[in-house]
Amino acid sequence: MATQKLYAGSKLRELRGRLALSQKAFAEKLGVSLPYLNQMEHNHRPVSAQVVLRLAQEFGLDVTELSTGDSERLVSDMREALADPVFGPGGAPLADLRLVASNAPGLARAFLNLHRAYRQAHERLASLDEALGREDRAATPSPWEEVRDFFHYCDNYIDAVDRAAERFGREAAGRDMLAVAAEVLAARGIALELAEGPLVRAYDAEARRLIVSTRVPEATRRFQLLHQIALLAQDELLEATLDLARFQSPEARGIAKIGLANYFAGAAQMPYGAFLAAAQDVRHDLERLADRFGASIEQVAHRLSTLQRPGAKGIPFFFVRVDQAGTITKRHSATRLQFARFGGACPLWNVHRAFETPGRFLRQLAETPDGVRYLSLARDVTKAGGSFTAPVRRFAIGLGCEITHAGKLVYADDLDLSRRFEPIGISCRICERPDCHQRSVPPLERRLAVDPDRRGVLPYRIVP
User: Fold this and answer.
1) Whose C-alpha in 35, 114, 158, 371 is 20 to 30 A from the C-alpha of 456?
2) Phi and psi at residue 374, in whole multiples of 5°?
3) DSSP H or E run through 332
4) Each residue of 3-28: pLDDT tens digit?
5) Which of 308, 370, 312, 368 is nearest to 155 (CA)?
6) Hey, is 194 helix, strand or coil?
7) Residue 227: CB partners within 8 Å, gap ≥ 6?
8) Can you tell me the distance from the alpha carbon of 417 to that of 415, in angstroms, rounded to the nearest whole number?
9) What does the buried/exposed string (b/e) look like for 271-299 if buried means 16 or more CB atoms within 10 Å of the residue's CB?
């Protein structure tokens, strides 16, 4: 198999801009000619191994940043958007999409925003109760989607918030986090009350009182306390981060603030350096990590997907949470696997089977249509309401990595990695597998042949 050439023009230009170097000075430091650098910056030539080495030596660059990040996500998102029937058959060649993602990422995001606005306007017009009185918002992206995209394109790692949380967690090391949180609140004149109630957490600013429900598990109480501390003690940092994000609506900004406070809570409970070392020590055993850091399985899995600090990265994981209808409620991927932006995940993926085997980890060796192989874990997550009459929420979480990292996970110890990998996709409408027995709709980029006298797994044949 031929080695894939590395084109990273936009990354080189971005690095040179951060360093405030001219092309000539940058070329000298990399040991290449000015014309050669110019060709690399415009993706007319791939980045050579010599240049990669010089980037690491001269500037301490984490070279994995050259081949990961926005580019693959943008290609995947554009490919899915172009599968929309509004663009007609055929779509755009993959090579063209990669060229746009590498050379004009801003244009790619603008295109995705435009398509998202179109979809939302179309959906509103299709439903009268959604359309009435809301025409003035047709071009405004969904606040929820806007926030999800913010974290998505930040690689789910917010450096300033993560480091502030790590400092907090380091100072609290060895002590019970519930007691530490109570002390921080008391120092601000806020009384902490643990009591039964309809809300998980309720803060009364006028009465200077924070109530946290005793109905929820201890890990959830600890997380909610840290969330409130983030809002109170780290408000300036959170607001500055939100200013940089430039959300288009106050609703999106409000949702993002909750997301940032959640991020702080998870990072304080599982400080970056200590958590990364522990994860490597126990070979990413989620149950042992949950016990060591007093967190839930879901919190640990989500935290593993955020270990993307430049110069100290963990394993690139994907993380997803789905409900019983198959709808994705949380998603992030630091791998080449990209989730569908709209609708559910591939039905062949083991995350859907987790509901059938509660309390157990399911393992799957999976291969996507691009030939990349993954080790995927899945487990159900039950969130009880704390009383007989309270509703119980059920989800399934998925966590996985490319098979090259499988040896670092305890879950791969007795697996035969030479056996056949199960084929999975992203979503049916952009998956090109011709013989999938679970296909719900035809792929939008392919022609169909329908023969009423012949019937296979599907009632049609996908034309190559």
Assistant:
1) 371
2) -135, 150
3) strand 328-333
4) 556 667 777 887 888 888 888 888 88
5) 308
6) strand
7) 201, 261, 262, 264, 265
8) 6
9) bbeebbebbeeeebbbebbbebbbbbbbb
Strand (E) or helix (H) holding 288: helix 286-293
Cα–Cα dist 33/24, whole Å: 8
Query: What backbone phi and psi angles, to 5 degrees, belong to 396?
Result: -130, 140
- Alpha carbons 392 and 382: distance in angstroms, whole number: 7
Distances (CA, A) of 404 to 71, 283, 314, 419, 422: 21, 14, 14, 15, 16
For residue 301, give Cα distances in angstroms to 74, 297, 319, 326, 368: 24, 6, 7, 19, 22
Predicted confidence at residue 1, as pLDDT, reads: 39
Q: How far is CA 283 from CA 35, 261, 273, in A?
A: 46, 28, 15
Residue 48 one-letter amino acid: S
**Rounded CA gap, 333 and 348, in Å?**
18
- Nearest 5°: phi and psi at 372? -80, 135
Rounded distance, CA 112 to CA 118, Å?
10
Q: What is the 3-class SS of 357-369, one letter each residue?
A: CCCCCEEEEEECC
**Helix 235-245 vs helix 250-269: angle between axes, to the nearest 10 degrees?**
130
Cα–Cα distance, 24 to 74 (Å, whole number)? 31
Instruction: Measure the CA–CA gap between 14 and 224, rounded to whole angstroms.
Output: 38
For residue 80, the one-letter residue type is E
**C-alpha neighbours within 13 Å on the C-beta side of residue 123:** 11
CA–CA distance, 374 with 362 (Å, rounded to integer): 14
Assigned token pair, 2: 């031929």
pLDDT one-digit tens code per residue, 286-313: 999 999 999 999 999 999 999 999 889 9
* 3 state SS of 425: coil
* Each residue's pLDDT tens digit, 161-180: 999 999 999 988 888 888 88
What CA–CA distance (Å, rounded) separates 425 from 367? Answer: 8
Predicted structure pTM score = 0.72
Domains and CATH numbers, the chain: 9-67 (1.10.260.40), 70-140 (no CATH), 141-269 (1.10.10)
Structure tokens at 104: 């004009």
Query: Tokens at residue 275, please?
Result: 């958590």
